[in-house]
Amino acid sequence: MLPSGTTNRGTLVTTPLPHQANSTGPTAGEIRCPRQSCGAVNPAVNVFCYYCGALLRQPAGVHSPSDTQFSVSPARPRLRLSEDSEIHLTNETRWLGRDELSGVVPERDLKYISRQHLLIGLENGQYYVQDQNSTNGTKLNGIQIRGKGKYRLRHGDQIQLADVAIITFEVL
C-alpha cells in the first residue's frame, strides 16, 4: 500500500530553478540579468549571465567605450523591409502599419496588417518593439509578442507582422 499523496509513479516535487527562486529581486552579492527576456538572478561575481550569456557587468581591467580616446561614429539603426526598401530610425517613437508597408508588402497581404500594428521606440538608449494589440499579431524572432509589452531590439532581430511581412532591425 502506498502512503497518502503518493502514486506508483512517485511524488511530483516542483522546485524553482535557481534564477527563479528570488522573485523579489537580487540580494546582496547577486545581480539581475538586464536582458528582458531572461531577468535571471546571478552571483555578482559573474561577468555574463549563466542562463542566457548576456553581459552583466564590465570585466575588471576592461575600459568602457566612454574611456576610449578615439571617436566612434554613431550607430545608424534601420528597419530593412526588403532588398531595396528600408526605414531609418530616429529618436522618435514610430508607428508601423499598413500605410508604411504599402508598396513593399503585396496588396493582397496588407489587409492582415493593422493600421497601427506596432511601435518602434527608443528608451534609455535602447530600441524596442511593442505590438499595439494588432488583430493578427507580431512575432519577434519567431516568438509571439502581442499583448506582452516592450521587447528590446538587437541587430539582426526579425520582426514578423501578421505572418505576411518580415522586417529586420539593423544597426550600421
Quick one: how many beta strands? 12
Task: Give the neighbour order of strands across the main sheet.
Answer: 4-3-12-11-8-9
Helix content: under 10%
Average pLDDT taken over every residue: 78
Structural key phrases:
5% helix, 28% strand, Tumour Suppressor Smad4, disordered N terminus, four-stranded antiparallel β-sheet, 172 residues, mainly beta
Describe this structure in words.
- It contains 2 helices and 12 strands, in the order E-E-E-E-E-H-H-E-E-E-E-E-E-E.
- The protein is mainly beta.
- The chain has 2 domains: 25-65, no CATH class; 77-171, Sandwich (Tumour Suppressor Smad4), CATH 2.60.200.
- It has a 6-stranded antiparallel sheet, with no helix packed on it.
- The longest helix has 4 residues, at 98-101.
- The model is unreliable at 1-8, 10-22 and 64-73 (pLDDT under 50).
